[in-house]
Amino acid sequence: MAETKSSKKKSIEVLTDLGEGIYSQIIKGENPYFTLPTRGISNIKYSEEKRMVTLGEGLSRRYFLNVGHVRKFIQTVAMAALSKELIESGKHTSLRSAFYQIRRTIPGTKIDVVDDQIETNKAIEDLEVITDLTREQLNINANKAGAVAGEVIVEDRNDIIDWSKMGSGGWAIPSNVEDLAFKKVDAKFVIYMEKQTIWDRLNEDKAWKKLGCVIIASQGQATRGIRRLLQRLYQEHDLPVYILTDFDPWGFYIYSAIKFGSIALAHAAEKLALPEARFMGLLADDIERYGLKRHLIKFKEVDQSRLQQMKKYDWFKNNKDWTAEFEKMEKLNAKVELDAFTAKGLSFMTEQYLPDKIKEKKFLD
Amino acid sequence: MAETKSSKKKSIEVLTDLGEGIYSQIIKGENPYFTLPTRGISNIKYSEEKRMVTLGEGLSRRYFLNVGHVRKFIQTVAMAALSKELIESGKHTSLRSAFYQIRRTIPGTKIDVVDDQIETNKAIEDLEVITDLTREQLNINANKAGAVAGEVIVEDRNDIIDWSKMGSGGWAIPSNVEDLAFKKVDAKFVIYMEKQTIWDRLNEDKAWKKLGCVIIASQGQATRGIRRLLQRLYQEHDLPVYILTDFDPWGFYIYSAIKFGSIALAHAAEKLALPEARFMGLLADDIERYGLKRHLIKFKEVDQSRLQQMKKYDWFKNNKDWTAEFEKMEKLNAKVELDAFTAKGLSFMTEQYLPDKIKEKKFLD
Asked: How far is B51 from chain A (nearest CA, A)?
């Protein structure tokens, strides 16, 4: 759902309710508190039902009149006030700037509200789980990276942006895509890839036009902006999302994090994870099929140990297809990069590999 | 100069000449060779005249019939052939893909043309200095990153792209800007900044419109695509280029690398360095003036030692202004981030700091 006027209004309402709740506790002479899910590692788990890494049932209360809580309580309230201000003025800030904006000495004391950005980062996460709003909905943006191309037209800050007319660069994906309105979506699916150079190649081939898809890349892990964009394209426009990476544990992990989320983002899993994403990257069988054997790159110890960790993940260990894939990789003791396809011709991916995958629906899930 | 048809033609001519030169040496029964500048550290120096880190006068010859040279000779010739193919077909590749494209076993032997990307990277650098063409002109692209906004219209791959209508994302800067044609440039100067979050802030304020400038950011060091874009905006449209970074040795180094180049890029200095760039980032005096003292961040040892290295650079050590700045920083033993301005209001940079700098022309050179 786009951040329309009503979603802006909703955010303000939620923050106002939070403030009024605390105010009424004070008026009644109570010790003000709020309730929030515990975010410690013991309360983070993989949910079979939701198919994502998310917070468990554990709840905790944070009190104002508690020496151990008061600092965090005040920081969270300060952050809520800042967010409300931001939303009302239509401006956005970053994690780093939010720290500077909150930083001040409490009048009449020598105590600073915050000393370190770690505190404001935590306060923002607290606020996310208390309000069930994302950072982006609270107008606190993450770093941006990445580019997109395809037959899609969006409206953003009153500009009409046609993703099919962005030359060799593509449109730079914003840190915050809540405000985007989709005007036209003429695509059958989305490909997210881990490497800008692969994106460049596919964009030069106009693969998005030939295959009827949207192509997106950042560099390595997807940014929050990209995750939300993938999620919106899936949820609002029914576009299947495919993840295109190397045949290596690091590529598999990029897929894993987009699909199932991660420990660091467990508190925002439902806003960022995409359990319906599927893997269209290189598989062990593709190595034989496409004659990539000479391009096997022998594992270093760090690759093998990353693979061993991955095998143990709750969301992989009972999955037959992935278990089989991991075993083949372990046996090969080697990885293969997507770039190796260029040995077969610069447009081999556009003309052969991707059409094969799509035609045969050879996606791991 | 844009890569027009004539520049494409020129590249092909240069590569053809190279091939014909070798061919005629063979016909005459000579030992084929080419001459190229030595790229070892002993031949890299700061040129006072050019104001950049560049290669000295040292030359060396690389022979085909020389056991120590033959491998590199063949790799460079293979890369020249690949480049010619790329230019003729209008396609681009990456460093990584170029490696896979060159990789093959010499028929009738068990010898591979290349074993490792390090070899093809070197061959590409060789080709750059032999032909006086950049990687980009040889159709071998670097990684892309970064975004741009401003009152500029370009044509790229037949798309007309208006940098003032790119919403919150901006146009993603391509890895290769040789092909860009500027259709309209309505700006008085360019600001390159080291942080995407600062760019986001300025873009949200439409600072580029208010100040009449182009704003560009990647994350940290500028990519090759961005360097060339800055250079083209300066050389073809007379736009002064200002570098906006934190008050810290790392920010100063980002400025230094854009302006004077670096050891790693010495062989391409004249295509990438921009001696006319000026520093509009935070200076010691700004800390006092804008009341940023409470936001000083104490140096770690690594910051102080980076500063000490920087003081010794040939291009800084005889520069009074920079020497004074380094001394103030050393004494403060602390850095300040641009983000700290948000403590004074989210739009402080757009409304106060940048207009002050521009009005007072307070740029270090």
From this structure: 31
Same domain, B166 and B301: yes
Same structural domain, A233 and A322: yes
Q: What is the pTM of this model?
A: 0.94
Give the model's pLDDT for residue B221.
Answer: 87
The helix (H) or strand (E) run that includes residue A63 is strand A59-63
Give the closest-approach CA distance of A156 to chain B in angstroms. 5
Domain with B228, as residue range(s), is 147-360
Question: Are the C-beta atoms of residues A172 and A146 closer than 8 Å to each other?
Answer: yes
ipTM, two decimals, is 0.93
The pLDDT-based confidence of A317 (bands split at 50, 70, 90) is very high
Domain count, chain A: 2
pLDDT, average across residues A232-244: 97
Among B347, B338, B267, residue whose Cα is nearest residue B38: B267
CA B140, CA B97: separation in Å to the nearest integer?
9
- If phi > 0 it is left, if psi is from -120 to 50 it is alpha, else beta; for residue B192 that is beta
Cα distances from B27 to residues A58, B16, B22, B177, in angstroms, run 82, 16, 9, 39
Nearest of B184, B230, B178 to residue B6 by alpha carbon: B178
Q: What is the pLDDT of residue B20?
A: 96
For residue A295, what is the nearest residue in chain B, using CA coordinates? B100
Beta bridge partners of B193: B217, B244
